[in-house]
């Protein structure tokens, strides 16, 4: 009989978001009259704008014609899209060949670890997006879960909390080999400043760390003095891979499209090119993103597409402002929201799962418990700005009513 992969067996508990769904469904089953408002999972809700939709439709129609039909494309993605990303997002700091198109950042997060094998120390911001650690566990980067610390062994958890302005105290951490860093961070909404990123890049250079910089929410940064890419720091090309996504940028969570930047300058300790191996791994595990989705990606990067998505982003940011105000008016400590689509609220001395259940049962509002993102998320709740305005207003009303009594 085939044996279970022992690394998969090490995963502790269920993946966070199905767990939240399980609680919500159980609650609705027991209380069929309840109308839940879902501000837990960060999924976009607004329809795609017309310029982008028309391009998707056009690309699909082309496939139904003799002259427009195409089969497999290049595994690395269409050159036109790689070039458009190099120009629009990175202002030609990279060659199109340094950019690899994927079906979204999630797949890249896990696939990237294949490059480095299993004898690797992973580092993450604590709290952070759970997929970094979970894919690492599946790859075999840990001996198991330690219940007393609520941490996996052999993983560097770098605490990010209000006292260090949500940036890890690098002088105190055990340097990892591969460091997943997300800015704007999911769940805290914190955005690293230029000086923090400079410190991060110097730390990586000193300890020969590779940073995987996740920019899934970069388009939500409103403050022009904040960096949107690790490559805004010149030397980052020597130490960082960057992941980008069209999901939250343009409502492509269901269409599926993203990219990775793996600079030519990146090397393994033996001097071999990381880019060359990524080309090999990426094209072995992935047969190229959907040609329809890639046509949509090109439309997003054009002027009209950019104008359309700014409206979408504004809509979600206004939702976030409403959520922030609700909690601020009630005297809560509120973080995030201003340059990110997540609001991070502290409920002092309360376990985050207890707060999650309290808000679910008393306000019928689904949030995400902070501890699901790491032990430093205890006492916090993440509230997503993605949602229909009328639902956000209703949730704000219910939360205000519940928490002001
Ligand atoms: N990275 C972060 C930090 C996320 O929060 C998410 C999705 O919520 C992803 C990546 C996944 O992005 P994609 O839809 O491109 O797979």
Distance between the termini: 59 Å
Mean pLDDT: 96
Helix content: 25-40%
Bound molecules: pyridoxal-5'-phosphate
Please tally the helical runs, counting DSSP H or I stretches of 4 or more residues. 13
Question: What does the main sheet amount to?
Answer: 7 strands, mixed
Question: What topology, given as strand order, has the largest sheet?
Answer: 2-10-9-8-7-3-6
CATH homologous superfamily heading of the largest domain: Type I PLP-dependent aspartate aminotransferase-like (Major domain)
What integer value in Å does the Rg equal?
A: 21 Å
Can you tell me the CATH architecture of the largest domain?
3-Layer(aba) Sandwich
Overall morphology = globular
- What's the number of extended β-strand segments? 15
The CATH class of the largest domain is Alpha Beta
- How would you classify the helix and strand content by structural class? alpha/beta
- CATH topology-level fold name of the largest domain: Aspartate Aminotransferase, domain 2
Q: What's the order of the H and E elements?
A: HHEHHEHEHEEEEHEEHEHHHEEHEEEH
Integer tally of domains: 2
Poorly predicted sequence stretches spanning 5 or more consecutive residues? none
Description:
This protein has 405 residues and is α/β, with parallel strands linked by helices. It has two domains: 8-48 and 306-403, Aspartate Aminotransferase, domain 1; 52-303, Aspartate Aminotransferase, domain 2 (3-Layer(aba) Sandwich). It has 13 helices and 15 strands. The strands form four sheets. Strands 2-10-9-8-7-3-6 form a seven-stranded mixed sheet, with helices on both faces. Strands 11-12-15-14 form a four-stranded antiparallel sheet. Strands 1-13 form a two-stranded parallel sheet. Strand 11 and strand 12 (342-346) form a beta hairpin. The longest helix is centred in the C-terminal third of the chain and has 27 residues, at 303-329. The N and C termini lie far apart (59 Å). Bound molecules: pyridoxal-5'-phosphate. Residues 42, 104-106, 129, 182, 186, 214, 216, 245, 247, 253, 258 line the site of pyridoxal-5'-phosphate.
